[in-house]
Design goal:
The chain is an alpha/beta fold. The protein is about 30% helix and about 20% strand. The protein has 22 helices and 41 strands. The strands form ten sheets. The chain has an eight-stranded parallel β-sheet with strand order 11-10-9-16-15-14-13-12, with helices on one face. About 55% of the residues are buried. The N terminus is likely disordered.
């Protein structure tokens, strides 16, 4: 049976590759091709009066797009003119104009007839024919012309200007976008308060439901629907935070029908009724159906069924296209109040099917989404009727939770995927800016396609605006996965940039967006003030007033902040080079998210360094408090520019999402560790949290010394300060000594190394607030072996002695291969293997910016030591016990077994097996604290213990046991590894 799934998926992808993966035709040279606009005159757009409403409407959009580009608006007619060029827009079987061409043998439609959403464009007898197998096939073909003439799908939502030109000539060759791989492709507008929820009612006017002015009306949804179709989406879950699609505007469903959009409702809203429709009319003890007002199938089942019946009757009455959500969850995105018994869910599904059979038809598309606790029913063996689409989900953080079991017969209704680019819940909301790493999204979507998930995909995109790039990638991939292998991800990024900013700067803009996604993937910006620690007994502790990045080890916080500042500077340098017409779009799609994120890192660095320096008594702490406040002011100014300085103030009120004050329990209560700053469901403006502190600095000068690798300061701290170990093979940043003033009066300091081959720069100087001194070793003069050298720091009448432990080890020629131990560890990035050994067609494959993962992803599990492996040559100076830390993407147990596994060995030793799921204890169903830790830190960090028999060259082997494991990094701790978030920098590597 699994071979059937593989064969079907392979053939479908092969067909897609042939149909739509070739480069799309651009514009033809003036005087050639079809003259859409020539010499100031436009072709007439003709659409039959009896064609489908979405096709008649999109003809007007094409006319508007041509006018946007050329200033000339084509006439739209239902009659073919006697003279002049004509664009014929029509649906097979609904347009007599197109059907006549087919009957006359002038237009061959055999390769699109009867297919789903398949377009065809061809010049026939001098007329450009834009047709399709169905309504949306035509619509997608029309909007493809709009793209080719220079109108971005984001022209309205991101203010991307059209590329103006006087003449438009289209190639006349036959062209089709092909048939989409995923049948229903769309997104969920969700978590829309405060940003979209503030902006939309102000811009489009209030909702029409009495007493609910914050509802979204049909004018808003018309803009959403148009953008969906321009992106080749067809399916929408409408907004739910206090909003009811059907009630907020009686024209909402009619508008969806007019545009040709498929409507749905979210996983918690069955039978085509949003949960808010119940909440608005049910009160304790009463509901409109004579029940108790409880959202409980056991205790209020008859009222619930009557409520659902009304939803299906409305669908039948209004005649809109939809996919009906089945099942039931608790009110408020929680589990059912009636328990999770499988018999209860079976009864609920049966009742819903009975309503459909009675009121409409069970032939209408239906979906059961296995979100959160609902997946338990599937795991326990409950199956919906054969025609129902079963949608698997991610864990809200971009990691799929379960795949279909390929050893079992496939579910006839097919499978789908619900994925997140925005989330509200534990361990913390992320909804401010785009934080998706395209490579990570690709890897998960690739898994979904490989396991046959091709029926319905939906992405939670929050406000939609702000997640333009990941949403477009998600939809592009859903349309044609074969067009976007991992090797072409950079091409997709360049094409996204070219689509929205033109080709001249596309490479540079794509580079900025690429690096932005890479840096954001380390940690959500909302979590930059949470450090998560794991005690030896397994206790997990959150500190919401600490940075996760190390302030003292490996220069970590300084390094990551510097990377962000470099990226922000690159974006700022690009901005004046962007043509003036594109500046608003550049701010919305690129500059704001890059500069605001870079600024947030600068704020957090100043804030947490301030808090550290206060404990050390540094006078410079007060200056850092001021820097923090200045960066906070910059944060507000960047948002204000978005709200009032872009697109003539079009987005006023949109950039209001708090992102700094998370965890402030004293200000807004017990939900603060995960929920956005809010009171009474209204978002609060940010404040700096944790608050910076200021010292009352005495007048007299006072010496203070801090060293690399330590948070303490001397004089005052216990013991004698020591720098991290020096090695000629080290890759970590140079060790340093900070000499600082604890008073206001400047003083002079001197630094005296205890050996001439220890170099300190500078050797002293005037200390007003602080002076950083870098310590290096002259290895040509340093003795072999281990030497401890004292470094004496003197100033303001006192002195501190710092020890420098210098380990000068020989590296014989036979040992000079692979990575070299230094500082008590070896650190290796996963792709930098010395060998990639395949087994029976399965091997490890690099996914750019992510790591190494087995391919094919549907490969069978292997016994430890029998599967494909990665080998890493390294030289260890330390014999005896070592610990190997594996940094893995936080994947869930997507397979049928009890957990994802890998194995590790040194040389020819027996591989040690790790069950990642059991080792971390992360449970994506209960969403326990262990799961919150792995998703928040974006890593599954697991370890194995080994004994190295002798110093010298060794081979570390990382074995596949199960597929779906993604290896990011390996660190061998030989006794000197220091705590950090990202792990130490990669070790020095000899060729070979």
């Amino acid at each position: 049976m699994p071979s059937e799934v593989h064969r079907r998926t392979f053939l479908q992808l092969l067909a897609l590759a042939g149909a739509g993966s070739a480069a799309l035709p651009g514009l033809a040279e003036a005087g050639t091709g079809f003259p859409l606009v020539s010499r100031g005159k436009a072709a007439t757009i003709v659409v039959a009066p009896g064609d489908l409403p979405g096709v008649r409407r999109v003809a007007g959009d094409l006319a508007a797009d041509v006018e946007r580009v050329t200033g000339v608006r084509p006439a739209v007619s239902d009659v073919v003119p006697e003279h002049g060029p004509v664009v014929l827009v029509g649906t097979l079987g609904h347009s007599p104009l197109v059907d006549d061409l087919v009957r006359a043998g002038r237009l061959d439609v055999r390769d699109i007839a009867g297919k789903w959403e398949t377009s065809l464009s061809q010049v026939v007898d001098g007329r450009l024919v834009l047709t399709g197998s169905d309504q949306r096939g035509v619509i997608y073909g029309v909007y493809e012309v709009s793209r080719r003439i220079g109108v971005s799908p984001w022209y309205w939502w991101a203010d991307v200007p059209p590329r103006r030109q006087a003449e438009l000539h289209l190639p006349g060759e036959r062209f089709s976008l092909g048939t989409p791989y995923v049948k229903y492709r769309g997104f969920f507008v969700n978590d829309e308060n405060p940003a979209l929820g503030t902006w939309a009612p102000e811009y489009f006017g209030p909702g029409h439901a009495p007493g609910f002015p914050n509802g979204f009306n049909h004018l808003f949804y018309a803009k959403v629907f148009e953008t969906m179709l321009r992106l080749r989406a067809n399916y929408l879950w409408p907004a739910v935070w206090g909003r009811a699609f059907a009630e907020d505007d009686p024209l909402n469903h009619a508008t969806a029908k007019e545009y040709g959009v498929v409507m749905g409702t979210s996983h918690e809203a069955p039978m085509m009724r949003g949960i808010e429709e119940w909440n608005r009319h049910a009160t304790p003890g009463h509901d409109p159906y004579g029940g108790t007002g409880e959202w409980s199938f056991r205790r209020n089942g008859e009222a619930i069924k009557a409520y659902w019946t009304d939803g299906i009757r409305r669908m039948a009455r209004e005649g809109f296209e939809g996919v009906v959500t089945l099942g039931m969850r608790g009110n408020g995105d929680v589990s059912l109040p009636d328990g999770d018994g499988i018999e209860l869910m079976a009864e609920i599904l049966a009742a819903e099917r009975d309503i459909l059979a009675r009121e409409l038809s069970t032939d209408v598309p239906q979906v059961w989404t296995l979100y959160k606790e609902v997946q338990r029913y599937w795991v326990k063996g409950l199956r919906p009727p054969d025609d129902v689409i079963v949608v698997f989900t991610d864990d809200n953080w971009g990691n799929i939770r379960k795949h279909p079991d390929l050893s079992l017969p496939p579910h006839p209704g097919g499978y789908g995927l619900y994925y997140h680019f925005d989330y509200v819940g534990g361990g913390r909301n992320y909804k401010w800016v785009d934080t998706a790493l395209i490579a990570n999204t690709w890897e998960q979507l690739n898994q979904a396609t490989a396991y046959g998930n091709d029926r319905l995909w939906v992405a939670n995109v929050g406000d939609m605006k702000g997640n333009e790039l990941p949403l477009q990638f998600f939809l592009d991939y859903a349309w044609n996965p074969a067009a976007w292998p991992a090797e072409r991800l950079s091409t997709w990024e360049r094409e996204f940039a070219a689509l929205n900013f033109g080709p001249a700067l596309a490479g540079e803009i794509a580079g900025v967006l690429h690096d932005y996604g890479r840096l954001q993937s380390r940690r959500k910006p909302e979590l930059l003030n949470r450090r998560i620690t794991l005690a030896a007994d397994g206790t997990i502790t959150y500190d919401d007033q600490a940075t996760p990045f190390s302030l003292v080890n490996y220069g970590e916080l300084d390094r990551v902040t510097a990377e962000w500042q470099d990226l922000g500077a690159r974006a700022a340098r690009l901005s004046p080079r962007v043509p003036a017409a594109y500046r608003d779009a550049f701010y919305e799609l690129v500059l704001y998210e890059v500069q605001a994120s870079a600024n947030l890192y600068a704020l957090r660095r100043a804030e947490f360094t301030n808090l550290l320096y206060v404990t050390q008594g540094r006078a410079s702490a007060n200056g850092l408090a001021a820097v923090t406040e200045a960066r906070f002011a910059d944060d507000l100014a960047l948002a204000e520019k978005y709200n009032t300085g872009v697109a003539g103030g079009k987005w006023k009120g949109f950039q209001t999402q708090p992102h700094i004050d998370y965890g402030d329990v004293e200000r807004y209560g017990p939900n603060a560790p995960w929920q956005q700053p809010e009171l009474n469901n209204v978002a609060l403006p940010d404040v700096i949290f944790p608050a910076v502190r200021r010292l009352d600095v005495p007048a007299a000068a006072s010496l203070g010394v801090a060293v690399d690798g330590a948070a303490e300061a001397w004089p005052g701290a216990a013991g004698r300060p020591a720098l991290p170990e020096f090695s000629p093979w080290q890759s970590a940043p140079a060790q340093y000594i900070d000499v600082f003033n604890r008073g206001r009066t400047p003083f002079r300091c001197t630094v005296t190394p205890g050996a001439p081959w220890v170099r300190v720069e500078p050797r002293g100087g005037r200390v007003e607030e602080e002076l950083r001194m870098t310590v290096r070793i002259d290895w040509a003069r340093a003795p072999r072996g281990t030497t401890t050298v004292p470094i004496t720091v003197s100033g303001a009448g006192s002195s501190v002695v710092v020890d420098a432990v210098v380990r000068h080890r020989d590296l014989p020629a036979p040992w000079r291969r692979g990575f070299v131990e230094a500082g008590g560890y070896v650190s290796v990035e996963a792709p930098h293997c010395s060998a990639n050994v395949a087994v029976e067609g399965t091997s490890w494959r690099r996914v750019p910016d992510l790591g190494m993962t087995p391919f094919p992803v549907t490969s069978a599990s292997r016994n430890p030591g029998a599967g494909p492996r990665l080998e890493y040559r390294m030289t260890l100076f330390t014999a005896g016990p070592v610990t190997v830390w594996a940094y893995l993407s936080p994947r869930n147990n997507v397979l049928a077994g009890d957990g994802l596994r890998y194995a590790v060995s040194f040389d020819d030793a027996e591989p040690q097996v790790v069950n990642i799921t059991k080792a971390t204890g992360a449970d994506d169903t209960s969403m326990n604290r262990q799961w919150e830790r792995t998703t928040s830190d974006n890593v599954n960090l697991t370890s194995t213990g080994h004994v190295v028999g002798a110093a010298g060259p060794h081979v570390l082997k990382f074995w596949m046991v199960d597929p779906a494991v993604v290896l990011q990094k390996l660190v061998v701790d030989t006794g000197g590894l220091r705590p950090s978030y990202l792990g130490p920098p990669e070790s020095m590597r000899w060729p070979g």
